[in-house]
Design brief:
The chain has 194 residues and is mainly alpha-helical. It has one domain: Mitochondrial carrier domain (Mitochondrial carrier fold, Alpha/alpha barrel). It is 57% helix and 4% strand. The protein contains 6 helices and 2 strands; from the N terminus they run ααββαααα. Strands 1-2 form a two-stranded antiparallel sheet. Helix 1 runs antiparallel to helix 4, helix 4 packs antiparallel against helix 5 and helix 5 crosses helix 6. The longest helix is centred in the last third of the chain and has 27 residues.
Length: 194
């Protein structure tokens, strides 16, 4: 695969990521739908662990638990399409049509960095790291290649999910990211690079 294949693969992955982004946003919102917020500190009671190393060590457990949502009835996937559609409609009604594309800049950056790099370096690493005697790649080199590509693609992926989930937060808690660069800089300022 030469430069042409590298560019074509990168462009195809960017188009695919951007065109399926609204569905990914709905998926993230559906995943976050059942999450409860942080418990009120006044409803948390301290307990001393059974095997404490010091007498001052305590752990906290909530005193009240929220009941789980009732189970859905019907076939396994009967409501999946309607749920996806209703969440999409709810996002459009409450936040506008453009909200379906919140975080798309992170998707484009992720596809540019991760997929394009993966497609472009695949043949290079395959030929350079292949053992000529056995015509296989050693496991350690496969792991290193996976770590390289994961390190390249992970920061934009985290920024994308945070940008998608931002609209679900109460207005006073929203981060209101302007772009993927803003999201990455706010994330690195708040939590550092980990």
């Amino acid at each position: 695969m030469g430069l042409k294949g590298f560019a074509e693969g990168g462009i195809a992955s960017i188009i695919a990521g951007a065109s399926t982004h609204p569905l990914d946003l709905i998926k993230v919102r559906m995943q976050l739908q059942g999450e409860s917020h942080v418990p009120n500190p006044s409803s948390v009671q301290s307990y001393r662990p059974a095997f404490a190393l010091s007498s001052t060590a305590n752990i906290s457990l909530p005193t009240t638990l929220e009941p789980p949502p009732p189970p859905r009835l019907g076939p396994l996937y009967s409501h999946l399409f309607l749920d996806t559609l209703s969440i999409g409609v709810r996002i459009i009604q409450s936040e506008g049509t453009a909200a379906l594309f919140s975080g798309v800049s992170a998707t484009i950056l992720r596809q540019t960095l991760y997929s394009t790099t993966r497609m472009g370096l695949y043949d290079v690493l395959k030929h350079k790291w292949m053992d000529p005697d056995t015509n296989t790649m050693p496991l350690v080199r496969k792991i290193v290649a996976g770590l390289i590509f994961g390190a390249v693609g992970n920061p934009p992926d985290v920024a994308m999910v945070r940008m998608q989930a931002d609209g679900r937060l109460p207005i006073e808690q929203r981060r209101n990211y302007k772009s993927v660069v803003d999201a990455l800089s706010q994330m690195s300022k708040a939590g550092g690079c980990r």
